[in-house]
């Protein structure tokens, strides 16, 4: 008698769906690329310097040990010669062993049986943490001004002196560096502060000399699975965009002068997407070099 009815229980709330992780890629690329377009290849093949004082644009590559400087030279050669080549010797072992490149070398790229392309690359020892290791900043500054002779063996313990046989006392306009290119690995977590200070000192000297500069981000595919799957994702990748922005803010190079490039490494056949990025960077290098030659020499 008199028993009250209990209120009905509300149904249990549906389980919350987990929030999906943010996409590692943007919906649209933040920089446009004409993938597979032959325009840059033809542009480079037809490129000729108009200044009679110099036969070639001299591009100086610098950066930390293991950034891929020698591999970049080989990759340019591959893209232009349409086969796998190796004008610059490279090392596949751990970068902790130090720089594989020891000498100041000029690398030409064959155009045909009788001609070379009107640009050359100079490779040098990599930058390392602390003093007494890697190439010295003073030697890079001398190289920019054309004072380092071909074949000079870098000495991490002491810079090149004016009394050294490797010193060029009267460099010609052709000996001078016309474009300075910093190569940096996108697979590196952080720029070492000691190496960064050296890179900034090199940049300041180049700026004082009026030498144009750009940066190349290598090995980003090793850090970004989306670009490893498909290189065309390079300008959609949030990780690559962040890496390039970080390099720009720390080194002071404008973002539109930083280019991502995948070097040939494990490939035994040419790849159109790899070539697209390489040739885009190369075209900017030779254009900047020609502008410098026309205005300064």
UniProtKB/TrEMBL annotation:
Biased composition (Pro residues): 9-24
CDD domains: Ras_like_GTPase
Record region (Disordered): 1-30
InterPro entries linked: P-loop_NTPase
An annotated GO BP: immune response
PANTHER family: INTERFERON-INDUCED PROTEIN 44 (PTHR14241), INTERFERON-INDUCED PROTEIN 44-RELATED (PTHR14241:SF1)
Protein known as: Interferon-induced protein 44
